[in-house]
Amino acid sequence: MTQTNRQIVLKARPKGSVGPEHFESREVPLSPIGEGEALVRTLYLSIDPTIRGWMERDTYLPAIEIGAPIRSAGAGVVVESKSDDLKPGDRVFTLLGWQEYSVQKAGPQIMTIPDGVALEDALSVFGLTGLTAYFGLLDVGQPREGETVVVSGAAGATGSVVGQIAKLKGCHVVGIAGSEAKCAWLRSVGFDEVINYKTEDVAARLRETCPKKIDVYFDNVGGPILDAALMRLGRGGRVVLCGGISQYDVPDEKKYGPRAYLNLIAVRGRMQGFLVMDYASRYMQAIMELAGWVAEGKIQHRTDVVEGLERAPEALMKLFSGANEGKVLVRVSE
Amino acid sequence: MTQTNRQIVLKARPKGSVGPEHFESREVPLSPIGEGEALVRTLYLSIDPTIRGWMERDTYLPAIEIGAPIRSAGAGVVVESKSDDLKPGDRVFTLLGWQEYSVQKAGPQIMTIPDGVALEDALSVFGLTGLTAYFGLLDVGQPREGETVVVSGAAGATGSVVGQIAKLKGCHVVGIAGSEAKCAWLRSVGFDEVINYKTEDVAARLRETCPKKIDVYFDNVGGPILDAALMRLGRGGRVVLCGGISQYDVPDEKKYGPRAYLNLIAVRGRMQGFLVMDYASRYMQAIMELAGWVAEGKIQHRTDVVEGLERAPEALMKLFSGANEGKVLVRVSE
After folding, report:
1. Residues of A with CB below 8 A from B246's CB?
2. Closest-CA residue to B68 (of B96, B29, B97, B93)
3. Digit-coded pLDDT (tens) for A233-281
4. Which of A34, A64, A302, B8 has its CA 20 to 30 Å from the CA of residue A147?
5. Quick one: pLDDT at residue A2?
């Protein structure tokens, strides 16, 4: 077997836009595994906006250290094992990092992917992305039948699932996305209305498409779109804070806070953040429900696969330019 | 009896700072009352930050019309009546407006002030101010014993009651205010820690005074102080949005949105607005509890009385400069 491990490590912390200068590729020797450990070969990396935050500072997890592989979830296969719980050939999901190989231990932080589940699905609709949509919408947003749900970043991996679950729950669903192609796809998967924020006046279109105002706004983007949604929020409205991708690449002193937040007083609304990891005890139930919807064709999803570990930085930057269509994955090996 | 009614009416809508140019004083003839109506002479006006919003735009109530008396709660006395439910001599609390006299009808929107309750108390600690503190802290903030509660605008009519109720509930209480005199008073009524935002680094002092982070932040001010509190919020923290007095006088395009709002994701926190009027069915219970605490000396409060209807605009402006100490009232007549 190979004696080296290629990694993409953190070279410098981004303060503004993330770019190639923040990464470095290197080869390191592969250390032997110890008792209870397994060597995992990376198959796919899950490219998520939250990685940007880990690169810059301590958040809900400590910042990635300079010189360490970029922290990242992914799917891999066990190639060598001294653990009774991880067998060669097992496909697993955990934090693999941007590298060809990693040493893992059995435990609650590593999940085995059942046979018959495609890896691309395991990393998207049945992975943290789909679970984020599921718990964020249903537990934090609490939509009721007949209510109006608006989602930004709607063509993204999380947003598209949010909108489709909201449709399944009988809601009027409006998606906000950044291209005609994305909007057309959202219409094709059942969104009632779509807004192209690059060519349309979001505030005006929210007035048109949400005649009964907004009950749940699921936010993936922040910035002026969040303000437009806050201004159209209805009484008792809920803003689900999932992310703010428009702001991650902006230096602190230039970040855009939601100026319309005081409208939460007038409408008696709330804005609430969540992290999917808090729902770990309910993942299995949610995955089964999601799997049923996917099997029935009620949830469509797309993956945007970038080939090769060396292109992981480019894959991450895609999220911030909005060039991706669906869940971004990097295929590291077959 | 008098045939004229002096009023302070809205002359122009403020976009930035509210000033004398937005008001006009005028005398109008007093129209006779009809069946079911009563003539009420204004005794005190309650000067509240929310009036600023009503002057500019539609919020949870329609904007005040140009030429109409400034909308304002107040206490008055019935001087003439053709209603069975409002008797001459009754002291009442309702929306009186900035005027010497108003015509009122019986109904749930007008409350009789029981004998033995001082008018100044009825308009502050037992009025909407005290009730706002009570429901905002207890229902929206939901503090638990041993938790850390931070309140801004702490020396104000609402903030000071919030902090004292939080102490009664066994919390560690930190107040933020804008002068040494205010801070000294807050210490004297039992706040554990005080921060003078005009002379101290609020973020640094929150780190010192909230070693276990913040569980409930009751915000009356907005702006950079809200950001500092968001950055110090603990896991599951609640931000109670009561007001944002630092922002009311700022034109829309210059308003300061909380740039640190994304920290709500990392800490799984929420920011929630409320209006006291939604709790009307529970006012009596709350007033009784507040009255008990005041009688036992557990809640101290102060009123800042400005003499004369003509000085109502000045009284309102005091709220925005922070010159007031406690609840601002205007005494219109004896």
Report:
1. none
2. B97
3. 999 999 999 999 999 888 888 999 999 999 999 999 999 999 999 999 9
4. A302
5. 56
Q: Which pLDDT tens digit goes with each residue over B8-25? A: 999 999 998 999 999 999
List CB contacts (< 8 A) between B271 and chain A: 261, 264, 270-272
Q: Is B1 a residue whose pLDDT tops 60? A: no
CA distance to A74, A81, B202, B263, per residue, from A84 (Å): 22, 8, 53, 40
Please tell me whether residue A17 adopts helix, strand or coil conformation: coil
Confidence band of B199 (pLDDT split at 50, 70, 90): very high
> Do residues B157 and B124 lie in contact, with contact meaning Cβ atoms separated by under 8 Å?
yes
The per-residue pLDDT for B2 is: 56
Which residues from chain B sit within 8 angstroms of residue A244, using beta carbons?
Answer: 261-262
CA angle B51, B133, A261 (to 5 degrees): 60
Q: Helices B283-295 and B157-168 meet at what angle, rounded to 10? A: 80
Q: What's the gap between Cα A121 and its chain centre?
A: 13
Chain A interface test: which of B220, B268, B278 (most A C-beta within 10 Å): B268
Residue A65: Cβ within 10 Å count: 10
Q: Mapping DSSP to helix (H, G, I), strand (E, B) and coil, where does residue A179 land?
A: coil
**Strand, helix or coil for residue A211:** coil
> What torsion, rounded to 10 degrees, do the Cα atoms A122, B262, A226, B224 define?
180
* Residue at A196: amino acid letter: N
Residue identified by tokens 């077959």 is: A334
Do A31 and A40 meet the contact criterion of CB atoms below 8 Å apart? no
Q: How many Å lie between the alpha carbon of A170 and the closest alpha carbon of chain B? A: 26
Amino acid B145 reads E
Q: How far is CA B251 from the centre of its chain?
A: 22
